[in-house]
Amino acid sequence: MQNAISRLAHKKLLYAHRGANLHFPENTLEALSHAVLLGANALELDVHRTKDDVIVVFHDKNGKRLASEKSAIKDCSFDQIQEWKLIGTGTKIPTLKSIIEHFSKIPLNVDIKAHDTKTVAEVVGLVKALNAESRVRLTSESLKVIKRIRSLGYAGPTGLS
Asked: Which H/E stretch holds residue 126?
């Protein structure tokens, strides 16, 4: 048993940053799935909260760069965001819930882009509800966010991005 734990603890992880974003729009199910097909055994992604409290996988605070949409994620409903056309494809912006469920055996690094307490609480609550704490590392560029994650009793790994 000890050898199995030791091997797992030292398993080398090859993270795909936002997925295979040269092949598909970043942070989409297609980009993340293709990255796994190419050999990634861990995924890095970014999240924001919509105005109706859905945690979506998207790097930017608005859709300007990837969907020619100036609106901020936090000001749009999930249904509105699903109408966005990601440049060059028909792919949609996924929810964090769908990604955690789809990649049920793959370690995830989830970078929380919005630093408000409600978004942090929603992300922590979702990961806990899905029993995914052991494989989801919650990260942020803000030490304040990391402290908030830990204060909410998050048992999984955390890190500064």
From this structure: helix 117-129
Residue 95, CA distances (Å) to 35, 86, 92, 140 in order: 18, 15, 10, 18
Task: Pick the closest to residue 45 from 62, 65, 60 (CA basis).
Answer: 60
Using CA atoms, how far apart are residues 63 and 48, in angstroms rounded to an integer? 12
Q: Tokens standing for 29?
A: 């199910």
Instruction: Find, among 38, 23, 17, the residue nearest to 89 by Cα.
Output: 23
**Quick check: 24 and 34 in contact, CB under 8 A?**
yes
**pTM score:** 0.91
The model's pLDDT over 29-44, given as tens digits with 9 standing for 90+, comes to 999 999 999 999 999 9
Sequence-separated (6 or more) residues with CB below 8 Å from residue 49 = 55, 56, 73, 74, 114, 116, 118, 119, 122, 123
